[in-house]
Batch of 3 targets.
Target 1
Amino acid sequence: EAAPPPSLPQAVAPVPVAPQATAPVQRSVAETTAAAPTPEPAAAPPSVAQPAFVAQPEAPRYDLAAQLVPLQPARPVIPSIPSAPAASAPVAPSVVSPAASSATASPALTKDAALPTRSYVVPGSTRLNYNATGRQSRLDYAASGELLWQHDGSGYNARLEVSAFMLGSRTFSSTGQLTADGLAPGRFADKTRSEQAAHFDRTRGRVSFSANTPEVVLLPGAQDRISVFIQLAAMLAGEPGSYPPGTTITVQTVSRRAADMWVFTVEGDEKLSLPGGELATVRLVCNPRKDFDQKIEVWLAPALGYLPARIRIAEANGDFVDQQWRSTASP
């Protein structure tokens, strides 16, 4: 007689074992997940949490009483270095006294010309604020102006800005070095909506322009449209008695696209009533030499270190801007 087949419970007996083997695993995962503590966010390193509030030192403060002082108090006057050009080299002084100008005309400046021996006193770092009025495209406007002058005894930074509501702003900036011959600009920029610049290459003796205009020869004592006012201040502060009325001062002045010879004539002393009060000044005028040239008037104030108390620039079409000193502040 054949043996009976294995009973059904014996055949399927392993089936309930599988859930028992699996259930502990599932319960173990669930229990492990429930029992595991929620990880706390790691604390940020101190150097990352507070970099800007601990590491940064306080910005230096400027003492108003220390402003308008000569460059290098131990050596306030910067003497020029006498040059010894060859006998055949032209020597073209940039300053002509009234007597000399009536006798003979000043020779033209050339690249190899030597600057005359002269002393310069550079004003201390300061900020001058101006009230400005002007006319542009037959529209009269009121504006604010600012001249920022900073130096450390060897390098300098200057910025002249005029801002008018609805018309925007225009900014001249100049950076360079202080030398025995006063200011030596390295870069000049003129910015309205965009910026154009001129670069002074003293190694090659050339001035190049970002506006893709041709290079020009860099002449001795060359300045730009903002450094020229500081250079005039340093000249008059260094030798106040050397510029009587009628004296002419010729300076190669670089703009964003070209370089022109600006000839300033000393008109004499003039007392001004300005928004900041009354100031004694020396008035200098640069008259137009060609069609469409500007007329530039500047009043230099001894009380401001001979920096401009007033600047008026007039265009040939009648547009102008007139900046008048309002206050002095730290840079």
Note: The chain is about 15% helix and 40% strand.
Target 2
Amino acid sequence: MSSRVALAALALLALAGAARADDGVAARVNGTPISTAMVNQVVKGAISGRPQPPSSEEIAKLSDAALDSLIDLELLAQAAQARGITVSDAQVDAEIARQKAKFASAADYDKAMAASGLTAAELRTDTRKTLQVNQLLDTVVWKNVTISPEQVRAYYDQHKDQLGGKTFDAIRPAIERALLEDARDTAQRRYVDELRSKAKIEK
């Protein structure tokens, strides 16, 4: 999963537990609260479908990881806003329609919206934030991230015995994608670490 898709998925998981006035606050990022409900919803998404319930120790670790991810998301959203990155209403409409199309029926979508407790206005606000973060990643964080043909060839040569006898030409696109994703993850982590060093984060 690419960093951008991971962020979008995380944001959508968090929507179902979006902050309410009576939620406990798990952290504040430059004054912006992240609710315990948001953290819990991300954890629920991570463990859903498992055959065995996780231990209390695993839940604690997942909660810590979820909170850190939500803090990163908020930092990126604030950075996007500080840079004046904007998203049009048409882009928001298109993204909501894309997410809605993932449901089997309009009734299923309406049921999920009702269960989340989100209003249509809140959904638009959170969708806009996610799209702003994606634009920040594309135009700033990943702007100069590239993979050279030499890197792709070197990876193939080093891992040829593990690639099931596939030729270089056959597997090159997959290697390029994997290396680019790794490079983007590294660039994103470096960027977020810098944001964290300058931010006021209260847990």
Note: The beta strands are 25-29, 32-35, 201-202.
Target 3
Amino acid sequence: MTKEEMSMEQIIAMLKKILESLSSKTSQVIDLGPPKGEDKFYPVDQLFLGDVELIKVSEGIRLEAYLPTPNDVWTIGYGHTKTAKPGMRITLAGAEALLKHDLAWVEAALKKYVKVPLTQNQYDALASFVYNLGETNFKNSTLLKMLNKGDYQGAADQLPRWDKQKGKTLKGLTIRRNHERDLFLT
């Protein structure tokens, strides 16, 4: 059975299993990397997403599937798209589980493609960017090419360029990219 063929009950059961798995690990210490604002550089494989709130605020939360713009894909929770379908509904706990699932692929993409050390703020800004645009756009971006050449300022200056959809500037994306750039340069 493909994910597209899953019933709402199967999705809910899957989310419950994810939440149970996560709650059974609550006694573990989670390393979120260096303290926020510390300007020391770290290898990407030593960093963990520290600023989930940037993603949550930028994405907003919707417990019923919707189309963010007419040219977009179905979305639910905190910007989750992979399994979202028309009419789909989830709980707040389901939205959190989907976010954690999505953050895993974001962190994997950063570890895979970023070849230079980052500060915690740079890592968090890039995580927000990748979460919103996807791994393929990030992998093929001038931003990543500049970053991997050590041009941190040039990479930061690429962020605001990603505020369009089908050639049209979207105010929400402009605001988000400016926040990501500011965080990256902090």
Note: The radius of gyration is 17 Å.
